[in-house]
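Hi all, posting the design record for the shared folder.

TITLE: backbone redesign
STEP: 1 of 1
STRUCTURE INPUT:
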């Protein structure tokens, strides 16, 4: 399978020489929790929707639904699971799942070391098992990369991590080095806690290929999609940026358990990310898929995440079609390498986001609600203008008034969220 690459512009990906928009579904618990028949059904549905990548935790997800069907390690003489004893049968099954996924055209994005497996992260400091000894970590990473490199995966070095000490950095930096020594063509990134920054040693490593961030599931932090998008796009060195964990559809507002994120919230987070610097792609998550929840199972993340939906119910949530439409729009209008253009928006509302393509020929504006808006554009230079009613998934021609350097859009017809596309 051909490997994904970073485009020369450092803003997006290419696959076999063509621009590639990363659209991943989040299924952290696949290796521990799915059956082969469930996996086949799942893959076919997400393939039908247009997803092209799958984010999977190679090890067990500490806050998933239990019991697990499989476990990556064998028990030691004392009856405890030991990270020194890899269970070959677990990885045989994981390899079978990856074979089925890649046959359907999905790129695996594999998390190597979720934060509970590394010392001095927020999770390991809370006593969530199990921190790997450094030598066991090295042996495990070598084993996984050797075994799975044939699938041309992305290797996500960390999962939901912060960097509590230099020892944390040492673990992750060593894992990054091992990946590139064994699979130099594989792209690498780090999945971070929303408030985390990349340490300088990792930020400037020649082995890091792109940035991801997590805008998260706390209602009061839903400005993070655009704030963190701007932050990571401004980092040096420049690399493609992906929001790898916007709010999950169906997930309660973190810790409060009041209400749940809806398709509208997901659309908002996705488009605000894409137009604020995270233009290389996005991940979607359904609350019940990532933890592979079965009816009646114990869900270990209930304190923060509330009760998940049963996985088949979560699979059918409507917002997945919205993010699939996002990929269609990016490809249809060739919106690769979008650059933030917030100075074009003549409004004080930061939730309205604007971006232009690298060549300046196309401008895109996201409106979270119907409203009149003025934009600093050369009104005589636009050959074509499209509107997209994101809730109804309908394309239309908006009413445009051009006044010299200003373009005005009158109020839109329904109480929905919209996208405007201006083409020179």
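Okay, here is what came back for every position:
SEQUENCE:
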């Amino acid at each position: 399978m051909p490997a994904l690459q970073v485009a020369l512009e450092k803003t997006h990906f290419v696959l076999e020489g063509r621009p590639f928009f990363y659209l991943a579904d989040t299924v952290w618990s696949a290796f521990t929790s799915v059956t082969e028949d469930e996996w086949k059904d799942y893959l076919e549905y997400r393939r039908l929707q247009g997803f092209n990548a799958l984010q999977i935790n190679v090890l067990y997800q500490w806050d998933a639904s239990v019991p697990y069907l499989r476990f990556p390690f064998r028990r030691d003489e004392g009856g405890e699971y030991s990270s020194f004893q890899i269970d070959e049968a677990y990885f045989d099954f994981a390899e079978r799942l990856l074979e089925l996924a890649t046959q359907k055209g999905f790129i695996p994005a594999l998390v190597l070391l979720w934060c509970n497996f590394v010392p001095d992260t927020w999770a390991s400091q809370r006593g969530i098992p199990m921190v790997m000894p450094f030598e066991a970590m090295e042996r495990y990473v070598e084993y996984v990369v050797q075994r799975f490199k044939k699938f041309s995966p992305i290797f996500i070095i960390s999962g939901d991590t912060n960097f509590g000490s230099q020892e944390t950095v040492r673990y992750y930096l060593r894992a990054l080095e091992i990946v590139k020594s064994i699979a130099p063509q594989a792209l690498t990134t780090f999945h971070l806690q929303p408030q985390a920054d990349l340490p300088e040693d990792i930020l400037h490593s020649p082995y890091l290929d792109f940035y991801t961030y997590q805008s998260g599931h706390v209602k009061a932090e839903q400005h993070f999609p655009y704030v963190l998008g701007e932050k990571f796009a401004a980092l040096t060195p420049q690399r493609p940026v992906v929001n790898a964990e916007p709010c999950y559809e169906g997930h309660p507002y973190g810790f409060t358990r009041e209400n749940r994120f809806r398709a509208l919230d997901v659309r908002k987070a996705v488009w605000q990310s894409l137009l604020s610097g995270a233009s290389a792609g996005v991940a979607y998550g359904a609350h019940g898929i990532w933890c592979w929840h079965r009816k009646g199972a114990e869900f270990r993340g209930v304190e923060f995440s509330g009760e998940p939906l049963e996985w088949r119910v979560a699979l059918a949530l409507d917002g997945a079609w919205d993010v699939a439409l996002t990929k269609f729009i990016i490809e249809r209008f060739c919106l690769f390498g979008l650059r933030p253009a917030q100075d074009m928006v003549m409004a004080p509302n930061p939730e309205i986001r604007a971006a232009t393509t690298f060549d300046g020929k196309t401008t895109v504006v996201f409106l979270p609600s119907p409203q009149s808006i003025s934009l600093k554009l050369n009104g005589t230079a636009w050959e074509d203008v499209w509107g997209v009613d994101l809730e109804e998934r309908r394309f239309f021609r908006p009413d445009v008034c051009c006044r010299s350097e200003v373009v005005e859009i009158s109020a839109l017809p329904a109480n929905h969220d919209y996208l405007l596309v201006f083409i020179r």
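COMMENT: The chain has two domains: 5-332, 341-423.
Let me know if anyone wants the other runs.
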